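This entry is listed as follows:

___
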Amino acid sequence: MVNKDQVKGVAKQAKGAVKDAAGKVTGDHQMQASGKADKIAGKVQKAYGDVKEDVKRSM
C-alpha cells in the first residue's frame, strides 16, 4: 500500500530533478539550487511516508 506522503515525496523529487536539470542547462544557479532543495525535501517526505507505512503494517 502507498500513502499520500510517499506519492507526494516522489512527485516532489521528480519536480526537483526537472528544475535541477533545467537550471543546469540554462545556467540558472538559483533554479538549480531550488531543484536540489525540492529533491531533498521529496526524499524526506517519502521516507516519512515509508516509516508511516511500516508502522501501519506492523500493527
User: Anything to note?
Assistant: The CA atoms of residues 11 and 42 lie 7 Å apart. The mean pLDDT is 97.
